[in-house]
């Protein structure tokens, strides 16, 4: 496909993030006001915990700068924006690739994940891996669960939801039990909805012990999809049913199915 060919052509540039020298030339080309803007945005990122660098804050503060700077950057070499755009395109086309082509890209996605400093590039590498049927990418996705950046960890959970292996369900169950970040735990809970079977049922049953109503509601929604059953909205009722006790299901289309 065209997107795969473009990605292959630019692979060397993708595996080599934009150098500090190129970044320096881009900043000098923009003049003193541009440098001051970048520095100001950088301080804003430090204050707010931004993980994607000063350019992220700057493009939101001044969208015109983003478009103008991309045009200037392309004269020097491949831009961060182009790298992200091409990897996004590869991720979207991954399901349509033949098994041997998916396997071919697995090692390259691994290199991007291990070597790229951009959290967004690592997230996109995990996204692409999650859309591949190649079993070897499970290692990459598992590494994503330990990434320093939350959006990468959440993407890894979503990617595991797309996998059919029991190991994917086990990794999600482990994340639910060990993650200290609620957003990551919720992403793992939501992903387990796509995994029927005992691993998902046992993990979600334990997650129902969380007293947070939002978490309980999410768990029950995942249980409905995972088990194909509906025991209403009461966590204790679900726990009883999952433990094998006699519990009546809600009629199809009843109020319980709306929550």
Number of strands: 0
**How many strands, what sense, and barrel or not for the largest sheet?**
none
> Total number of helical segments?
16
Q: Give the mean pLDDT.
A: 79
Radius of gyration: 22 Å
Low-confidence stretches: 22-49, 53-61, 254-259
- Span from first to last CA? 42 Å
The percent range for strand residues is under 5%
Number of domains: 3
Order of SSEs? HHHHHHHHHHHHHHHH
Molecular shape: elongated
Fraction of residues in helices? over 70%
Structural class comes to mainly alpha
Organism: Aporhodopirellula rubra
Pfam families: HEAT_2
InterPro entries: ARM-like, ARM-type_fold, PBS_lyase_HEAT
Protein name: HEAT repeat protein
Could you please describe the fold and organization of this structure?
This protein is 70% helix and 0% strand. The protein has 3 domains: 19-77; 85-163, Alpha Horseshoe (Leucine-rich Repeat Variant); 164-259. Residues 22-49, 53-61 and 254-259 have low confidence and may be disordered. The longest helix is centred in the N-terminal third of the chain and has 18 residues, at 31-48. The chain is built from 16 helices and no strands. The chain has helices spanning 2-9, 11-15, 20-29, 31-48, 54-61, 63-76, 80-93, 99-115, 119-130, 138-144, 150-161, 166-178, 182-192, 198-207, 213-227, 235-242.
């Amino acid at each position: 496909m065209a997107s795969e060919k473009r990605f292959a052509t630019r692979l060397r540039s993708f595996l080599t993030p934009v150098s500090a020298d190129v970044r320096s030339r881009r900043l000098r080309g923009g003049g003193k006001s541009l440098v001051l803007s970048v520095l100001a945005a950088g301080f804003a990122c430090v204050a707010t915990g931004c993980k994607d660098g000063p350019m992220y804050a700057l493009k939101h503060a001044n969208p015109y700068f983003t478009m103008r700077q991309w045009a200037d950057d392309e004269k020097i070499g491949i831009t961060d924006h182009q790298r992200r755009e091409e990897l996004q395109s590869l991720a979207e086309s991954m399901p349509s690739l033949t098994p041997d082509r998916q396997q071919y890209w697995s090692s390259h996605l691994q290199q991007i994940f291990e070597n790229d400093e951009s959290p967004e590039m690592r997230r996109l590498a995990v996204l692409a891996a999650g859309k591949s049927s190649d079993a070897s990418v499970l290692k990459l996705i598992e590494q994503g669960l330990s990434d320093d950046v939350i959006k990468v960890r959440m993407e890894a959970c979503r990617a595991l939801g797309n996998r059919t292996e029991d190991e994917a369900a086990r990794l999600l169950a482990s994340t639910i039990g060990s993650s200290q970040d609620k957003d990551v735990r919720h992403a793992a809970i939501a992903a387990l909805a796509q995994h029927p079977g005992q691993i998902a049922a046992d993990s979600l049953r334990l997650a129902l012990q969380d007293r947070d109503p939002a978490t309980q509601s999410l768990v029950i929604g995942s249980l409905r999809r995972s088990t194909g059953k509906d025991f209403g909205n009461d966590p204790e009722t679900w726990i009883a049913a999952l433990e094998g006790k006699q519990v009546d299901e809600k009629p199809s289309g009843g109020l319980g199915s709306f929550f």
